[in-house]
């Protein structure tokens, strides 16, 4: 079965510090895309960062970066210099090489002022 | 472009009634997706369209659910004979293709009483 697992239901971090959210997945596909989405309370899902599985270089978007380990099927998100506006549910997702995205169960991130 | 628009934002209905939701995607996107999200879970795939063709439906989409995308523009999701288990957030998204990631709407929250 193709699954996405986020083992941390909740995480917290002090403002301005760095936090890493974990995600693992299981697939036999070799060509796929991975995503991190942010869902603030009562607001829409926003794409944070995207990684192509055939690229070894880890994606970076400003304060957000990923650690993609294809062999280990691991795709973690690092948030540097955490800000209050980063507080949200974070979902890891992949398309497993097809059209639909499969999401993990999410990690609720709290920023401590 | 104002992004993906969903209406209504909230819907409360009595069990057994029919409801219909509308999604207006980003006009340049030819793919449109419907997902369902329950509390504490990640979004689950329901169905997707490429232009006006419905190309895949999840087993979650029982025969009480029907989706249409006439003329490849807006889409509607209808639920007939609603049940309490249908209470959820219904998310619409659009894209050029799953590898690009989705742009989500704000969702329609359905409560069946």
Helix proportion range of chain B = under 10%
Which band does the percent of strand residues of chain B land in? over 45%
Biggest sheet details of chain A: 6 strands, mixed
Oligomer: heterodimer
| Mean pLDDT level of chain B | 94
The total of helices of chain B stands at 0
On the 0-100 scale, what is the average pLDDT of chain A?
Answer: 95
Structural class of chain A: mainly beta
Strand and helix layout:
The complex is a heterodimer of chains A (113) and B (113).
Chain A: E1 3-5, E2 10-14, E3 19-21, E4 24-26, E5 33-39, E6 46-52, E7 60-61, E8 64-69, E9 74-79, E10 88-94, E11 102-103, E12 107-112
Parallel strand pairs in A: 2-12
Antiparallel strand pairs in A: 1-4, 3-9, 5-6, 5-10, 7-8, 8-9, 10-11, 10-12
Chain B: E1 5-7, E2 10-13, E3 19-24, E4 31-37, E5 44-50, E6 53-57, E7 65-68, E8 75-79, E9 88-95, E10 103-104, E11 108-112
Description:
The complex is a heterodimer of chains A (about 110) and B (about 110). Chain A is an all-beta fold. Chain A has no helices and twelve strands. Chain A has strands spanning about 5, 10-15, 20, 25, 35-40, 45-50, 60, 65-70, 75-80, 90-95, 100-105, 105-110. In chain A, strands 2, 5, 6, 10, 11 and 12 form a six-stranded mixed sheet that branches. In chain A, strands 3-9-8-7 form a four-stranded antiparallel sheet, with no helix packed on it. In chain A, strands 1-4 form a two-stranded antiparallel ribbon. In chain A, a hairpin with a 7-residue loop joins β10 (about 90-95) and β11 (about 100-105). Chain A starts with a strand and ends with a strand. The relative contact order of chain A is 0.34. Chain B is mostly beta strands. Helices cover about 0% and strands about 50% of the residues of chain B. Chain B is built from no helices and eleven strands. In chain B, the strands form two sheets. In chain B, strands 2, 4, 5, 6, 9, 10 and 11 form a seven-stranded mixed sheet that branches. A four-stranded antiparallel sheet of chain B has the order 1-3-8-7, with no helix packed on it. In chain B, a hairpin with a 2-residue loop joins β5 (about 45-50) and β6. Chains A and B meet through β5, β6 and β11 of A and β5 and β10 of B.
């Amino acid at each position: 079965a193709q699954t996405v697992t986020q083992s941390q239901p909740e995480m917290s971090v002090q403002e301005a510090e760095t936090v890493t959210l974990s995600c693992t997945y299981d697939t036999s596909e070799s060509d796929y895309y991975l995503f991190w989405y942010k869902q603030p309370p009562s607001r829409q899902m926003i794409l944070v960062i995207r990684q192509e599985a055939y690229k070894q270089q880890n994606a970076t978007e400003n304060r957000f970066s990923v650690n993609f380990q294809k062999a280990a099927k691991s795709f973690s998100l690092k948030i540097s210099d955490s800000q209050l506006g980063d507080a949200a549910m974070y979902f890891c997702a992949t398309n497993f090489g097809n059209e639909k995205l499969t999401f993990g169960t999410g990690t609720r991130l709290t920023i401590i002022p | 472009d104002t992004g993906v628009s969903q209406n209504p934002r909230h819907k409360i209905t009595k069990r057994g009634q029919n409801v219909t939701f509308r999604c207006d995607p980003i006009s340049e996107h030819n793919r449109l997706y419907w997902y369902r999200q329950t509390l504490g879970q990640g979004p689950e795939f329901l169905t997707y369209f490429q232009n006006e063709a419905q190309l895949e439906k999840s087993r979650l989409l029982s025969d009480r659910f029907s989706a249409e995308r006439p003329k490849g523009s807006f889409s509607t999701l209808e639920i007939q004979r609603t049940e309490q288990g249908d209470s959820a957030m219904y998310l619409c998204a659009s894209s050029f293709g799953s590898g690009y990631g989705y742009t989500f709407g704000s969702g329609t929250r359905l409560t069946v009483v």
